[in-house]
Amino acid sequence: MSPSDALSPHIAWVLMASFLVALMQAGFTCLESGFVRAKNSINVAIKNLVDFCISSILFTLFGYQLMYGASVGGWFGLPVLVRYEGMNPGDITYFIFQLMFCGTAATIISGAVSERMRFVGYALVTVVTAGVIYPLVGHWVWNGAAQGTLQGWLGRMGFVDFAGSTVVHSVGGWVSLAAVLVIGPRLGRFGPTGHRIEGHNLPMSVLGVFLLWFGFFGFNAGSTLALNQEVPLIVANTALAGAAGGMAGLGLSWWGRKHPTVDGIVNGVIAGLVAICASCNAVGELDSIAIGLVAGLLAVVGIWVLELVEVDDVMGVVPAHLFAGIWGTLAFALFADPARLPAGDRFAQFGVQALGVVAVGLFVLPLCWGLFRLIDRWMPFRVTPEQERIGLNVAEHNATTSILELVTQMDWQARTGDFSRKVAVELETEAAEIARYYNAVLDKFMVETERRQQALERLNQLATTDPLTGLPNRRAFFDQVRRGLAAARRTGRDGAVMYLDLDGFKAVNDSMGHEAGDALLRQVAARLSKVLRETDMLARLGGDEFALLLAEIHAPADAEHVAEKLVEVLHEPFDLPQGTALIGVSVGVAMFGQGDPHDDVEAVVKRADHAMYDAKLAGKGTWRFGVPA
What we know:
Layout: H1 9-35, H2 41-68, E1 71-72, E2 76-77, H3 89-107, H4 119-142, H5 153-157, H6 165-183, H7 202-221, H8 230-257, H9 262-276, H10 285-308, H11 317-335, H12 346-378, H13 385-390, H14 392-397, H15 402-416, H16 432-464, H17 474-491, E3 494-503, H18 505-512, H19 514-530, E4 537-542, E5 545-553, H20 556-571, E6 574-576, E7 579-581, E8 584-592, H21 601-617, E9 623-625
Parallel strand pairs: 8-9
Antiparallel strand pairs: 1-2, 3-5, 3-8, 4-5, 6-7
Helix pairs in contact: 1-2, 1-3, 1-7, 2-3, 2-4, 3-4, 3-6, 4-6, 4-12, 6-11, 6-12, 7-8, 7-9, 8-9, 8-10, 9-10, 9-11, 10-11, 11-12, 18-19
């Protein structure tokens, strides 16, 4: 290669700047992959790769000419295919530089729609953005810029956007806003149980910000298209605006949430870098700091506003790129050297800048929203709720890792509350050791859960069971009567409560001793239980008093039959270790049901108790019916 074939320093510089802009793709990949949950990280990375592939091909086939071809009324260029062989090194270099810009505009959208958008839907959004939206807006502002004669209608009016605050970043932000409005928020993000969804690898996201920052040096300084005296100033302004935006975002989020937040400083830095693009060659260091500070504040406030209106922008793309891009475009009129204002004065320049912002917004947002809604009806943009829950790595790409498999199983356990199965992870993987310890925790958890369950059952038994006879106690009996009354009202069926008081028990207890009395009570409980139906409930209320619930009977005669059996079975002698005991029983019967809505537990039991005393007065060893008050 002869010296005459060597590239000029200017071409070499623009090529180097193109490489830096291309590096921003890696920055976006790290930033966005870390800000989503692990189950969606692969999906985000693949989307960032494929959108660069799509945008590169479309921009080469017709996008570049649509943007920089011969202008038709300042609206669009003629999309004539141009072969590289017919271009000189300078033109090819300019094409490469603009190709990287197109890829950047397309990949901005990925962060906003993460975690719930179908891969094919995202690819279509990239086609619309890189193939139509970005080239047309770029034509309005930058067509003819390389030749020094602007041909786009906004450019001719004096609209200035040196490195893309509007053309690249606002366009990406407008498209992102349209897309998130169509697909809606992630499951669990908003609503009564809504909550913030944290990313799985925020340190990687911070690395992504550094890569983006490094790429912005080429993004802004390369826009000079020459290695001239403006380059150092642009690099300095870019660094200062990003730093100021980061500090503003950090400070405001710290004040608002009472702690320094990662998304606050991350979006603040990006917003500062975005905002300075429009005027990075025309302002000084204090101006850059001011522009960055305002952009950082806008980014954090924008995130809060979107949360209030329940617009789910995962990465804060709309605040960091759209809001900051609008501010940076308007800031040119406020901070740029007056000698660099094409409109002549700040007021007129501000009007031109505002017109450009509004025109781009009115073109991009309605067009994209309407088009995306139309496509969504034909081919839904959003994955199913089940696919969203399992994650797009698996649902869209059938891609997983041992860590992801482990997290998926743990997530399933957390959602279902079923911890009966251990997690299964392939041995010799990075997740195997975690799974082993987690399973050990599960084992301990199951043991403790079983112990607690046994303790609760024991406590419940003690609270509802008579310790001497093993029968339900007063509390359990009253609860069951309450349920019996409710069932009788629903079904119209009758029921009965019987109050039993042993006759002659005190004499046995006094003559033979308390041990004999206890043994007698246990035998009474056993005899009574043998003559009852499974649906009946026998309880010991205390001392020598028992109660019986007949939940379903057809007529009072049924209750009479049961009462006669009770009197008969307890009239037989009882063989005790201390001797033979003869006792009887007096039974009071209270009917309930019969459509009476005023009966309650206390009234029914009281009626049975009074009837039992009537049986006592009648000579004992018999039964009587209670009369409703």
